[in-house]
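tool_call: predict_structure(chain=1)
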Amino acid sequence: MAKKIILFLSLLSEDESKRKTKDYACAAGVLGMDEAHKITGTQTNEAPVKAMLLAHPDVRSIICIVTPQAKESTLDFFKTHILEFAREKQIKLPDDIFKIIDFQNDEVFTEGPLQRVLNEIQPGGMGKNSMGDEILLETTGGWRNTMMYLLLLSRVLTYNHNQTIGATYADFNNQQITDVSDLLRMFDLVGGMQEMSSFGNVRTLRKYFGAEPQDERIGELLDALEALNEAITLCRTRQINDCMAQFNLALKAVGECSDPLLRVLIPAFRYTFRERELTTVGLIRWCLSADMLQQAITVYTERIPAEIFGKRNILRIEDGTPLQPSSEYTDANVSQFVKGFLRSSHCTQYLNKFGLSDYYRAQKDKNGDAHYAEQIETIVDMGKILPYSGYKLNPAYSTPQMQTIARDYLYIKQIRNMTNHANDEGTSDLHLLMDYLVKCGYHPLEKVTAAYIRQVIENALKHLEPPPREANTKKKKGKK
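tool_result:
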């Protein structure tokens, strides 16, 4: 690991009478310095590089990107004045501290000079040697688009595990050296927000704000998102509701945080889950938009039954209906939906009236197991079974819509088993279910793609919504 300064060398007037030597004010705090300094400079890069050496006397390289004109007219002057300043301040520099990168007038920066800089910093190519260098950017010199080149260079180096620790700019008119490190670091904040929106990952934001952010509201948001992400990744689905509640509180509070740029970015982050507060459906959609299909599948299969029985009140469990037991790894709503409602074709009241079907008997005799036959019967004959099932369907939902919701759930559950390489409860009649679902329009599991899974889940979420109420256009008849 080494500290390295990178700069574009500006031209120095060949007419000495036109050269202007200035005393630049360098306030305490610039580049982390404890004391204020007055630094003399003639050439554009001179004073800010001197300030960097005062703040970081352990710099090992000064990488100068030079045009043929600057190399001829300015480079020797710049090197001489920097070395004189180092001797005056008793800063010991390596004999080969200056590294020269040629930038020909007709070159495209990304095709030539950029690669030469990277080779200088990391000999042998990206990913090899010198990983972990600390970079200081001097942004004053060069052309008007130099800052964009340096920003690109900084991003590329960061990608390869180097760190930009500081940046300066020399304000000629006000004769002061400005620390623009925070401005550069704001790109890390924007990148961190993009990472959080896309992947639910707060690693970059942790690095930006520190392990314990000064503003507790920011720290609470990062903590809440980490907890939510962990609950999903480790399939701790019973914790998801509490994690979402904590996340929503933290997200609301961070809107008043002390960081102005973060406050600006938060509304765009909210848009990723399409709601003012994160809900189960919003969380699933967020996972889909971030290509986190496994997480979306997990949350759907483990939390949608709670939506059906709870928030959306699609089904109501009537008094006297047997409650299915939960376990350490199985939510009570999942048990009630899969082992209770979806097996309503074998509830006591229904069997007392209609008895076992010929279809069920045949499958039982053929397969030795008819677990899925019960679920298929429940869906196919739902209109007939519901009055005896112990479950009340919300009048806003039709029986065909409830049949679709049930089929969606069973299909996505099988996708989850497939992606987890898991067998479902040791049943031997799985082919019955899959044959039925394929006849209903779902793809065979061996033919599904990531895009298709995303489409199936998006459609399943839409099926949970009650149909819009039709406007009553008929005129009410008045009394004669």
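agent: The chain has three domains: 3-179, 188-278, 294-463. Proceeding to next step.
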